[in-house]
């Protein structure tokens, strides 16, 4: 890892597998290509999150790009390098969403036909938005890797140029422009925390950032359910499985070019759980009033999960994307309310006679709790025939208030099942 060596060769930092080279000059050239076509998003210090996390925290709002993701940087840089003949034939890409949006949007702007292969289970918002940008969308494969195999075959048969989501020097250079922008806006940043899927974003950022500040720390973040780069770099064999909130970084095999860059320039990789990412998504909405998808909130999740690693430091955080279904946002916010003790389901054994519901309701009202939902269960329970199960969803201020409410109901003689 980068911390084990002296970073004195940043001009050669991008040398990688297969002879590919990405230099800081390539990233500067990418910045010129992107100027005027990709937003230079804000990089602002969050006072409230800084206090909560115990460090000085800057947020790079890549979720506010036109396609709500950093991915259009690399996509445009790669598309701009196509020859006239390649533009005429068109391009193909595989993506779980954000790369698809970036390629589709800029291909349409440049008049390039684009076919996008997306794996099954890709959030519908990303599928529909990709179609809206005029791309030919093909749903194929259970994983990004299977979608990639289909895309390569499909493109080969039709003479299309493959626009890889991460393992391409021009893609990496495009993503690296973020680091230059962050360090211009906040030169005091000492650590950058960056989500990792295939590794294109963190590779470009590491090359650019360490050319400006050789001693800067680069920390990668992966979903615990998909620790592909973590496994390769640390020699582990943690399993990869299941659905994750961070589908944008749920990559089973990182790139060859990106792996070599990460191995030499990234200081560490942290794994975060889905619960931690849910909490981060909720916190960004509630505090910063900004929407981040699971992958986009992974960096904040890592800082909140391991605050001692960042305490007192100047930390830059990339909110890499904001494409998340509204239904999923609602679920995440509701689940966080439940974790905080602000929304709770109670089951109360009551005698099945008039006035019991009114008694419970009065007790809850006196305790300052709000009833959200209520139902009686008389048939499907293990209670005696003259009893009923009263099921309530209540709203309280916090977990301490919930405990007060439960204590009041218990003192009144009610048997609660929480």
Question: What does this 3D model show about the protein?
Answer:
- The structure is a single chain.
- The longest helix has 17 residues, at 169-185.
- Helix content is 43%, strand content 18%.
- The protein has 3 domains: 2-68 and 174-335, Rossmann fold (3-Layer(aba) Sandwich), CATH 3.40.50.1100; 71-162, Rossmann fold; 341-417, Alpha-Beta Plaits (2-Layer Sandwich).
- The strands form 3 sheets. A 6-stranded mixed β-sheet has the order 1-2-10-7-8-9, with helices on both faces. It has a 4-stranded parallel β-sheet with strand order 5-4-3-6, sandwiched between helices. Strands 12-13-11-14 form a 4-stranded antiparallel β-sheet.
- The protein has helices spanning 24-34, 47-53, 71-79, 84-89, 98-110, 124-132, 144-158, 169-185, 200-212, 228-234, 256-265, 274-288, 298-305, 326-339, 356-366, 399-411, and strands spanning 43-45, 56-60, 91-94, 114-118, 136-139, 161-162, 191-195, 217-223, 268-272, 314-318, 343-351, 370-377, 387-395, 415-417.
- It is elongated.
Helix and strand layout, with pairings?
Blueprint: H1 24-34, E1 43-45, H2 47-53, E2 56-60, H3 71-79, H4 84-89, E3 91-94, H5 98-110, E4 114-118, H6 124-132, E5 136-139, H7 144-158, E6 161-162, H8 169-185, E7 191-195, H9 200-212, E8 217-223, H10 228-234, H11 256-265, E9 268-272, H12 274-288, H13 298-305, E10 314-318, H14 326-339, E11 343-351, H15 356-366, E12 370-377, E13 387-395, H16 399-411, E14 415-417
Parallel strand pairs: 2-10, 3-4, 3-6, 4-5, 7-8, 7-10, 8-9
Antiparallel strand pairs: 1-2, 11-13, 11-14, 12-13
Helix pairs in contact: 1-8, 3-5, 3-8, 5-6, 8-9, 9-11, 12-13, 12-14
């Amino acid at each position: 890892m980068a911390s084990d060596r002296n970073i004195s060769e940043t001009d050669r930092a991008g040398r990688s597998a297969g002879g590919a080279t990405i230099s800081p000059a390539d990233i500067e050239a990418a910045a010129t290509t992107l100027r005027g076509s990709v937003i230079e998003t804000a990089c602002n210090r969050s006072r409230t999150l800084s206090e909560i996390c115990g460090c000085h925290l800057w947020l790079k709002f890549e979720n506010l790009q036109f396609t709500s993701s950093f991915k259009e940087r690399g996509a445009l840089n790669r598309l701009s390098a196509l020859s006239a003949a390649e533009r005429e034939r068109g391009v193909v890409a595989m993506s779980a969403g954000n790369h698809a949006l970036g390629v589709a949007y800029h291909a349409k702007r440049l008049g390039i036909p684009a076919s996008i292969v997306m794996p099954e289970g890709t959030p519908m918002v990303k599928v529909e938005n990709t179609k809206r940008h005029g791309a030919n969308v093909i749903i194929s494969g259970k994983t990004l890797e299977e979608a990639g195999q289909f895309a390569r075959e499909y493109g080969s048969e039709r003479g299309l140029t493959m626009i890889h989501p991460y393992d391409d020097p021009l893609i990496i250079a495009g993503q690296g422009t973020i680091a230059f922008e962050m360090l211009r806006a906040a030169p005091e940043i000492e650590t950058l925390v960056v989500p990792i899927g295939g590794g294109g974003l963190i590779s470009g950022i590491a090359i650019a950032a360490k050319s400006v500040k050789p001693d800067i720390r680069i920390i990668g973040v992966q979903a615990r359910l998909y620790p592909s780069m973590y496994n390769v770099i640390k020699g582990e064999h943690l399993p990869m499985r299941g659905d994750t909130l961070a589908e944008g970084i749920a990559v089973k095999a990182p790139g060859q070019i990106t792996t070599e860059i990460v191995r030499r320039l990234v200081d560490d990789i942290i794994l975060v759980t889905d619960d931690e990412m849910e909490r981060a998504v909720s916190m960004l909405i509630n505090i910063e009033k900004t929407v981040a998808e699971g992958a986009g909130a992974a960096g904040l999740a890592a800082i909140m999960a391991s605050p001692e690693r960042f305490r007192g430091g100047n930390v830059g955080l990339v909110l890499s994307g904001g494409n998340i279904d509204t239904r999923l946002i609602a679920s995440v916010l509701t689940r966080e309310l439940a974790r905080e003790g602000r929304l709770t389901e109670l089951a109360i054994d009551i005698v099945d006679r008039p006035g019991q519901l009114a008694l419970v309701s009065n007790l809850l009202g006196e305790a300052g709790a709000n009833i959200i939902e209520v139902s009686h269960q008389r048939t499907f329970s293990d209670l005696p025939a003259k009893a009923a199960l009263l099921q309530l969803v209540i709203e309280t201020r916090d977990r301490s208030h919930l405990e007060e409410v439960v204590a009041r109901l218990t003192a009144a003689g009610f048997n609660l099942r929480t």
